[in-house]
Design brief:
Blueprint (H helix, E strand, L loop, with lengths): L8 E4 L3 H12 L8 E4 L3 H11 L7 H6 L3 E4 L6 H11 L4 E4 L6 H8 L4 E6 L9 E7 L5 H11 L3 E5 L5 H9 L1 H18 L4 H22 L3 H8 L5 H11 L2 H21 L1
Parallel strand pairs: 1-2, 1-3, 3-4, 4-5, 6-7
Antiparallel strand pairs: 5-6
Length: 272
């Protein structure tokens, strides 16, 4: 990992996503444990991370920042204000990477003061199993090298793409919230099977393996999703009948409205 070599990385917030990043960095061997420091305001999380990952755990944000080259801010949006306030007193000259949803690079830069190097990232929960997708953008004062650094970090928990920050509300609605949409569909399919007489365990196995296999087929075949759908949809067959119900219910239009609604909500939250 070229851009992480010799760098000390601190993670503020050891909840699901902070722990996923920590686990990804260690399991992918992007950095050694000696290069990592963690902090969380919850004592139980601090103790859990120390026991599970065997890394140093700081007693405060300020202590962590003073020992790091790169600081990953993995706290909830409503808690980032107090974290940035503490950082602003102690943390000049570091690279700051924020995954707080809806918090813009300009807002972080303003809170930190001066010309801080800021990278904003929108990851998603499949990062917990190393299959995440993260969108990255840099603030006004961050360099291309800083962006590469963030790319190396988030590639340890899946894939990463660079995007203009103006698309981040859409990213939040698409890939940030996206796992919930797929879970919702699977919930509906399993529920339909159970109502038609199948036991829940069997229905769940059939639906989950179908989802996994379909995603892998889409990724590995190189074919567009529309073509793969056509391959399954025989003229006059069962799939065609099901698709006709979806089309009558205008499912595509409903999905588009849902994504727009989520993107609007992301924009509203960014103004709070």
């Amino acid at each position: 990992m070229r851009y992480l070599r010799g760098k000390k990385i601190g993670i503020i917030g050891l909840g699901n996503m902070g722990s996923a990043i920590l686990n990804g960095l260690i399991s992918s061997r992007a950095v050694g444990k000696a290069a990592l420091i963690g902090f969380d305001k919850e004592p139980a999380r601090r103790a859990g991370a120390r026991k599970k990952y065997s890394i140093p755990i700081s007693r405060s944000v300020s202590e962590l920042v003073t020992h790091c080259d790169i600081v990953i801010i993995a706290v909830k949006p409503q808690n980032i204000g107090e974290v940035l306030k503490e950082i602003s007193f102690y943390g000049k000259g570091r690279l700051y990477i924020s995954i707080a949803a809806g918090i813009t690079t300009r807002r972080i830069e303003k809170a930190l003061g001066g010309k801080p190097r800021v990278i904003r990232v929108m990851p998603n929960t499949p990062a917990l199993v190393g299959e995440g997708i993260s969108a990255l953008c840099k603030g006004r004062y961050a360099s291309k090298s800083d962006l590469k650094t963030a790319d190396e970090i988030f590639s340890s928990v899946g894939e990463a793409v660079e995007l203009n920050e103006k698309y981040f509300d859409l990213v939040t609605a698409l890939s940030g919230s996206g796992p919930a949409y797929f879970f919702y569909l699977k919930e509906a399919l399993i529920g339909a099977a159970v109502r038609l007489g199948m036991d829940n365990k069997t229905a769940k196995k059939l639906v989950l393996q179908t989802a996994l296999g379909s995603a892998r087929l889409l990724l590995e075949s190189g074919h567009e999703h529309g073509l793969l759908r056509q391959h399954v949809t025989s003229k006059g067959g069962t799939t065609e009948r099901a698709i006709a119900v979806f089309e009558k219910a205008k499912i595509k239009e409903t999905v588009a409205r849902a994504v727009r609604a989520a993107a609007r909500r992301s924009k509203e939250l960014s103004r709070d």
